[in-house]
């Protein structure tokens, strides 16, 4: 069953994951200029670039916070509901955040896709809620 707390957790995770994705992309700008001769030194230089760059580090930490909330939410919800709901909401929020930052989001076809995604998410939540209601034990007493 998906309750109000779980739905709120889904939204928090989707917001943390979706809103940070465009910022993570912006935070990595300039990494292509990091050049080292050795593959190991290249890897270390890129890690140093990313973790000393607050434009990357702050969204990264928020994104990881979403992963922690998601992990705890999975303990109380069905995997078959949590995964599609969170992933599709994350996709929607990534598109919306990216468009607010000036990225191209795909026009009318993307908007239509977002509407279909929201319809699918709603069906998943309502289906889970109705299944839980149908399988609830009856409160009967024997006399």
UniProtKB/TrEMBL annotation:
- Residue ranges crossing the lipid bilayer per the database entry: 43-62, 68-98, 110-129
Entry keywords, A to Z: Membrane, Transmembrane, Transmembrane helix
Cell compartment(s), UniProt: Membrane
Judging by the UniProt lineage, the source's domain of life is: Eukaryota
InterPro entries from the entry?
EmrE-like, TMEM234
Any one annotated GO CC term:
membrane
- What is the membrane topology noted in the UniProt record heading this document? Multi-pass membrane protein
Pfam families referenced in this protein's UniProt entry, alphabetically: TMEM234 (PF10639)
Q: Which family does it belong to?
A: Belongs to the TMEM234 family.
Q: What is this protein called?
A: Transmembrane protein 234
Taxonomic source organism: Alosa alosa (allis shad)
Q: What is the lineage of its organism?
A: Eukaryota, Metazoa, Chordata, Craniata, Vertebrata
């Amino acid at each position: 069953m998906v309750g109000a707390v779980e739905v709120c957790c889904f939204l928090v995770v989707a917001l943390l994951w979706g809103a940070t994705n465009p910022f993570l992309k912006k935070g990595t700008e300039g990494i292509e200029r990091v050049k080292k001769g050795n593959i190991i030194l290249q890897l270390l230089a890129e890690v140093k670039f990313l973790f000393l760059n607050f434009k990357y580090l702050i969204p990264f930490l928020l994104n990881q916070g979403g992963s922690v909330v998601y992990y705890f939410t999975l303990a109380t919800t069905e995997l078959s509901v949590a995964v599609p709901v969170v992933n599709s909401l994350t996709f929607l929020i990534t598109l919306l955040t990216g468009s607010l930052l000036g990225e191209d989001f795909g026009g009318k076809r993307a908007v239509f896709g977002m509407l279909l995604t929201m319809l699918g998410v709603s069906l998943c939540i309502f289906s889970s809620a109705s299944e839980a209601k149908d399988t609830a034990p009856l409160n009967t007493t024997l006399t």
